[in-house]
Amino acid sequence: MRYGSMCLLAVAAASVVLLFGRAGGQPPVKGTEKEHSFGDIVLYIVTKPKDSKSDSGYALYEKPTIVHLAGRPFIVGTVPDYGDEEIAKAAAGKRVWTPVSDVVQMTEFKTLAEAKRYFTAPVKPAEKAGLRRD
User: Fold this and answer.
1) Of 114, 46, 121, nearest to 80 (Cα)?
2) Where is the signal peptide (predicted)?
């Protein structure tokens, strides 16, 4: 599947979740409305660049949910402890909010170990050129 098609699919899926996917459970935090829980998964998110000189943003969340705050949907999750580098340790356990409007791709993993295997797997030459990642 081409990258553009995958991005379109991810945005469409997020839209469907926002329109139809109400989840039960805990009452919303004051000023927020919980819309959807992805469950006990790890979600890798790619966001669009802030401007033409910026790179895309990336995030890895455990137990993500979609929450409305002031009428705006956000993907909210906790950053897992995913590495030994100082920046990874500093971010671990923090709750992060990403506007759904900034998301261009989402990848679901059942566990943090599965996500780590995906990102540490050897990259084939065609993938380095940005052609494909299976």
Assistant:
1) 114
2) 1-25
